[in-house]
Amino acid sequence: MKTRFLIPALAALAFAVSAAEPVQIFNGTDLTGWEGNKELWSVQEGTITGITPPDPADPTKGIIKHNTFLVWKGGTVGDFELTFKYRIEKGNSGVQYRSKELEAGAFGPILSGYQADFEAGTKYSGILYEEKGRGILALRGEKTVIKPAAEGAKKPTVEKAGTVGDSDAIQAAIKSGDWNEYKIVAKGNHVQHFINGMQTVDVTDEDTANAPKEGLLGLQIHQGPPMKVQFKDFNLVPLK
Question: Which UniProt keywords apply (predicted)?
Fold first, then answer.
């Protein structure tokens, strides 16, 4: 009679040892634990809010001249699962992970590393981009394997290994100007992104000399036209 419970028990045990307790990264009221340009980042109605203000000389342009970030200072992330909700009005944004901090710019911190990209437009949401690094590592809907750069080449070899979904269908499920749920799963050299439950990329990074394994977490404001981005409902779970 006891054996009928063995497999479920083992499955429960495996889950217990694979995931740790969630880590609170946002208290819902202020930016305690975060570092960035407080003229660009604030908390509004329980959401982390970032803006690119208009240039008084030309309101069609933003005042910031480089991408800048709000950096979580509560630790680093390596293997983890992060879910959050975002809403964006114009422009481009994203969540940096396994990132390193470079010399700060005139408008705040600068990060390099993996980025879970999203935008108000229809091209880049869901992709894997490496900020200040190797560039686009997977477009929306792609399953890729990243190989070291060929001799004499500056960029790695991005091999398309299949698909995880239709790019247009994924984009159609993204709610413009409304809240969307994003999930990032990073385990070893394997990373996955999901938006509103639909997988957007699947990447195996075999470029070991350049693949980030652990680093900082951050939120992006993109240079360019005026924009506004908001984040809420973070759930960060380290994976063992």
Answer: Signal
